[in-house]
Each structure stands twice: as structure tokens, then as C-alpha cells.
Amino acid sequence: TNLIPNKNYIKVISIRPDFLYIFSIIVSLYAALRLKLNNRIDLYLLSFVINAIAFSIHPNGIFGFFINIVTFIYYRKNINFKRFLFIIIMAVISLLLFIKLLLFDVSFQHFIFNFHLYADSLHSIPFYKEYIRYFTFVVYDSIFIIFIIFSLIPLLNLMKYKELNFIRIMLMIGIIYLMFQPAKWDYYFSVLIPFFAIGLAYFINKIKYKNYQVPFIILGIQFSLIFSILVSQSIQSIQFQSLFKDFVKTKWVKSAEEIKELLVDKKVSAPRVFYPYLSKSVLIKTNEKEKSDYLIKFYDAPQQKKSQFIKTIRFEGKYYNVYSHKNF
Predict the structure, then answer these.
(1) What gap in Å lies between CA 126 and CA 144, rounded to an integer?
(2) Residue 152: CB partners within 8 Å, gap ≥ 6?
(3) Cα dist from 55 to 9, 58, 112, 153, whole Å
(4) Distance (Å, rounded) from C-alpha 146 to C-alpha 151?
(5) Residue 105, by phi and psi: left (phi above 0), alpha (psi -120 to 50) or beta?
(6) Which residues of 102-141 are buried (b: 16+ CB within 10 A; e: fewer)?
(7) Is the pLDDT of residue 37 over 70?
């Protein structure tokens, strides 16, 4: 058989990319700090590349570029003409890198088609329904609200902590950005985590001189929560892997079996969703699909001239058409 599940691929695609854009936000914030305090621009330039990678993987990665832009405006006195040229060059390189990664092994038309295909109602919620995100966050993540409240104490004290003005600006931009983010998932609050973390650090630093034990109590509670979350997530991960294996065996592979007999010693061009179940020996890159014996396309995708319809299959809840090339 040529229909071999790629276990490593399954593990990779089951990991959410949120950690990467959070990392890009942290790097961009630290780059702004280095530019302000040390007048160093090296990390600021590097952050463009990191943000390009993050943005190509998840739409929230664009927020790192927002930080770059505000950094340029807010600390413009630290940027001379020579540095400005370096920034322009790095911005162009990052743009080209973003396009290359975004359209890796796929045409622009195919990307737009997939974009519209997966832009369902859950990813098209209007901005005035932002309350959905807050409601979900309060219900499912209420354990973190106390830390957000602590972090807001210095962030809302506009007169005393003026050095936090940059963080306040980015926090407001982040709130507005989430408002116009059409997917109202509560975990997209992760965009704001670095700013709340800085606010919490200022709060702990403020009270440590008044009560030596309070900061350690707060940190103790925080680490206890983190530990409990890790344990909970580990248990859920084990349960998910068990259910996932059963699901794959009973549903996904069963659907894929419908085309298994067609793929023996043949080449096939298929959407990425089939990759975990197709060995590399039968796969043909999307941009070289004319070399394939069989072609699997979305149900409503236009049929190629040199192809013959074979059958329609249902895979992962969606319908696909299987075609053979007439010259085969």
C-alpha cells in the first residue's frame, strides 16, 4: 500500500501556532526597549524577519509589525537616515519572505480559493460582537482575571508610570485589533499577554518595598496556577491523542481507503489535508500536478481540460473530486 499515515506530520499539524506570534510580539517589544535604552537597532531589524515568519503562519502575527511601526514613530529620534535605509531594506526583505512562505508550494489563486473556503461563520463575526470573546474569556479563563486586574493598576496610572506609555499605546492598539479580528476565540487574548505581563511586573515591583512577602505570595499563586494548567493540559493531551487515533482509524483512514486502490504505483496531486495519509513516494507538488496520474481537488473547484472525472469522496467532512489525466 502507498497510503501510509505520516505520524510526525500529524503531530506537527495538531500544534497551534499561537506560541510563535506571541514570541514575535515579545521580541518586537524587547527590540523597542533596546532601541530606547541602548540605542541598538540590530534586534529591531531582526524582529522584521521574525514577524514575517509569524504572520505567514497565523494572521495575528501581523501585530508584531504594528509594534515595529509604533516603535519607529515613538522612538524616531533614535533613527537617523542611515538606519532608516536599513529599516526600508529589511522591511522589503521581510515582505518578500512573507509572500514566499505564505505561497509556499501553492499558487495565489489556490490560496485565495482556500481562504474563502475556510472563511466560515465562526471566522466572519462582525466587530460589534466583540463581547463574545470577553464573555468566553470570563467563563473559561476567569482564573487569570485577578492577574489582569493587578497588571492594570500601573497601566491605568497615567501620571506615575509615564515610561509605560509605549506599552499603553500598544495595549490599546491590541484591544482595537481584536475588536476587528473576525474570529472571536478567547485564546486570541494571547496577543495582549506580553503587555499584561509587563504591567504585572510593575505592580509587583511597586509593592515589594511596602510588603516584602506579597510579591512572593503572588508569584507563588501564579506558579501554582501554571503548574495546575500544565498538568491539566497534559491530561487533556493524552486523552486527545487517544481519541484522535480512534477517530483517524474509524473515519479519516476509512474515507481515504476509497482512493487507496487507485494509488498503487501511481502519482497523485492532492490538497495538504491528505498529506498525513499519503507517502512521499506518491505525492506530486501542487505546482507540478501535470506530472501526476491522479488529481484530487475540492468539489467545486474547476475541472482541468486534460482530466477525466472518476468519483467524489468525502474526507474530513468535506467533498473532493478525484480525476485522472486523459494521457494516463
Answers:
(1) 26
(2) 196, 199
(3) 21, 5, 16, 31
(4) 9
(5) left
(6) eeeebeeebeebeeeeeeeeeeebeeeebeebeeebeeee
(7) yes
Per-residue pLDDT of 266-303, as tens digits, reads 777 777 777 666 666 666 665 566 667 777 877 667 76
Residues 17, 8: Cα–Cα separation, whole Å: 16
Grid coordinates representing 282 are: 506518491
> 298 forms bridges with which residues in the sheet?
320
Residue type, 93: I
Asked if pLDDT for residue 75 goes beyond 50, the answer is: yes
Would strands 268-269 and 294-298 be described as parallel, antiparallel, or unpaired? parallel
Whether the Cβ atoms of residue 3 and residue 279 lie closer than 8 Å to each other? yes
Q: Is pLDDT of 119 > 90?
A: no
pTM: 0.63
Query: Cell numbers 514577524 label which residue?
Result: 51
- Round to whole Å and give the CA distance between 194 and 28: 11
Number of alpha carbons in the 13 Å side-chain half-sphere of residue 74:
20
Instruction: Report d(CA 251, CA 262) in Å as an integer.
Output: 19
Contact 295, 289 (CB under 8 A): yes
Q: Which residues pair with 307 in a beta bridge?
A: 325
Please answer whether residues 174 and 196 qualify as being in contact, where contact means their C-beta atoms are separated by less than 8 angstroms.
no
Query: Beta strand 294-298 with 307-315: parallel, antiparallel or unpaired?
Result: unpaired
Residue-wise pLDDT for 2-25, tens only, equals 333 333 333 333 456 788 888 899
State how far the Cα of 297 lies from the Cα of 273, in Å rounded to an integer. 11
DSSP H helices in the chain: 7-13, 18-37, 42-57, 62-74, 81-102, 108-118, 131-140, 145-155, 165-179, 193-207, 214-247, 253-260
- CA–CA separation, 227 vs 61, rounded Å? 27
Distance (Å, whole) CA 5 – CA 11: 11
